[in-house]
Amino acid sequence: MKPKINQMSPIKKLALIFIAMILGYTQLYSQVPRRDSLQYQIKQLRLKKDFNPHDSHYINMLMKLGDEIRYYNSDSLHLISNEVLKLASESGNKFSKCNSLTGIGNFYEDQGNYDKAIYYYQKAYEVAKRIKDDELLLGNKLLLGIENSIANVYYYKGDYAESLSRYLKSIELASLIGDNKMLAILNENIASLYADQNDYDQAIGFFKIVKKLNEKIGDEINTAKTMSNLASVYADMGKLEYAMYNINSSIGVFEKHKIMDWLAYAYEVKGKAYLESKDYKWALFWYKQGEMMHHNVDDDRGETSLLNGIAEAYLGQHKDSLSEVYAQKAFELSKRLKFHEEIQKSANTLYRINKNKGDLKSALTFHELYQTLHDTIISNKNEKSLTMLVTKLDFEEQKEKLILENEKALASQKRYIYIALLILVIFLVITLIVRRNEKVQKRLNVELYNKTAKLVENEKKLRATNETKDKLFSIIGHDLRGPIAAFQGLLQLYRNGEIGSNDFLQFIPKLGKDLDNISFTLNNLLSWGQTQMNGSTTKPSIICLENLVNDNINLLEETATAKSIRIVNKITSNVLSWADNDHIDIVFRNLLSNAIKFTPENGKITIDVSERSTSWEISVKDTGVGINLETQKKLFKKNSSITTYGTNDEKGTGLGLSLCKEMVEKNNGEIWVESTIPNGSCFYFTLPKMRNKFQKAG
Predict the structure, then answer these.
(1) Helix (H) or strand (E) holding 311
(2) Do residues 24 and 72 touch, judged by C-beta distance below 8 A?
(3) Is 296 in contact with 28 (CB distance < 8 Å)?
(4) How much is the pLDDT for 17?
(5) What are φ and ψ of residue 578, in 5° steps?
(6) Cα–Cα distance between 326 and 345 in angstroms, integer?
(7) 342-378 as b/e, with b when 16 or more CB fall inside 10 Å?
(8) Which uninterrupted H or E stretch holds 487?
(9) DSSP letters of 322-391?
(10) What is the pLDDT of residues 291-301, one digit of tens each?
């Protein structure tokens, strides 16, 4: 039966529209500046003495207002769309008539009355085809929007084959006219269709297409909408970090632009992500944020999943009575909309609640309903997946046939193209022969230049390698060969009987110190050599700085005790950093070793930490002899070889601080020194804080 449009006087209709706008204006005054602006402009138009309700500008303003209030006051959308239809029909404005019919279809779609929605969409489609005859591009754009709406309704009805077929045909038209915005919408709808069938690989593939289109369009609101839908899919896939990243990014955009219906949806998706991770407290928090937004949003379909989410979150917190209230609301609303997936969710929740409170009869009723819907939905999804595959294959086959027909039509024209190409090739051959010598000469010059540049670069690398090699051999010859030779000489004297066992044993403490020094030097030498010749790979992880410092204090305890030096570690166990454990171990070992070396007997070394916003600032302070300004400037230079003797004539390679600088910088930190003679020195360096698991989600 053809739906009837209510007949009433124009004055009465205008009054009702004005009341609807005032109500919407009062509810959302501070949140929707665009609707405020439209309502204000409409009001100003009506106040004019020469106001004409058939004026196209006035009708267009009403039509835009209807679009804006779709998810906030659906009754007003219906009323305004009917009024625009009447005015457009009287004035012969086909564009406004088409949009008013689409608005009425939107109303019935949101109410779950899909047959009526399709009826009005098809009427709008017929009007759009007549517009296409007069204005091709505008008509095609209208046809695309209506076809997408019809495909959406078939999607809600469960006829996925028809929905997919219409989406694919629309994509062809959108590609033809270059409508990137509509292409993004259509591909995103197909992605949602596949996600509903749990075919996540296909869904993600279409979302990638949408992402590229959004980058071309450059509209951050459309991008945020896509990220919200993508976050929902990632949550269903169990990829919660991806879900959090996408939904937090979209929430910021919706809050910035005050897109309340999408913001409500985004809060719901964030709640779902926490629900998937069984974090019921935060899930409930974000669901509640969405619930508050839904007070001003008229979107029953979206509200069903929100209510089911809240019910499940309360159930996870063992608040069965509250869970039952929300589950029952979701159950009733889902039944009215014939939303089977949400009916199934609420039935399952109500089954668990009734089972918990011992109402086995009700529990059994809901369980049977859940199981029936579960089996039906699974069966339907399998059938729909197969149908979608057949539909896609049929579409591709038809597309290939069309391509073949076009190729045959163009075949006769190709002969002329080939003749033209042959003439062009002959001309190019002659041109190439003339310019051949010039191009060869240029190519040889380029090759010579490239080889020369490469030779210079290789020479620099070779010189750097030789410098590194000379540095290594110098250290080995000067700092390692001497102590080792002395050790060998002492052993030779002992073997030859020139010194006795008692005399030999007197050298043991000194030999121990020499061996410790050789070991320490070798460790620094190997670490430095690796960074200079082969580079070193940084492998960051969570490290406890307190443990690392204590390990090095224990390692150097004997040396410090020999000089009666007290080492104080003020770093606590909650100081965690994201850095390479081996690198920072080298830094602490060198800084502590230097502090011990240059601190006189009965001195003190203090290791402390202070917190910055994103990093830790660690200090190693001693009561030693201090460092003059000239030496401080050279301490951290690359390949620095500054070597000084400690308070007990301890000696090093001069590599330690250069190595510390490299290790700290590889871990995104910085190092410096503050020192005055003779008041000791304090070496500082920074390290990034431990990374939070949901760092991107915010």
Answers:
(1) helix 300-316
(2) yes
(3) yes
(4) 42
(5) -105, 95
(6) 12
(7) bbbbbbbbbbbbbeeeeeeeebeebbebbeebeeebe
(8) helix 481-495
(9) HHHHHHHHHHHHHHHHT-HHHHHHHHHHHHHHHHHTT-HHHHHHHHHHHHHHHHHHHHHHHHHHHHHHHH
(10) 888 777 667 77
